[in-house]
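Running this now, will post back.
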Amino acid sequence: MRLVVAPTAREEVVEAWHFIARDNVDAADGWVNRLGKEYDKLRKYPHIGRVRWESHPTLRCWPFGSYLIFYRVSGNTLTILRVVSDYRDISESEFGEI
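Update: finished.
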């Protein structure tokens, strides 16, 4: 399965890295490495994430530590749309028309 990481998700990963790196750069690097392994898991088992909102049936969510990975599967492509802290109150309106 082909993996695509949307620009917004890339930006959020960089922001998370900076947040973690304020305390420990090695921990931030480790977090990014583990995130890559989660991406690989999602590529292997693309439907393990759950549909979070009925209004967005193609949008799936997978927990990763204190973050949530939002993604979509279309054909042979898995697109990572967002990587956000689960401390945030994420609403479906943030995803617009998917």
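The chain has two helices and five strands. More later if anyone needs it.
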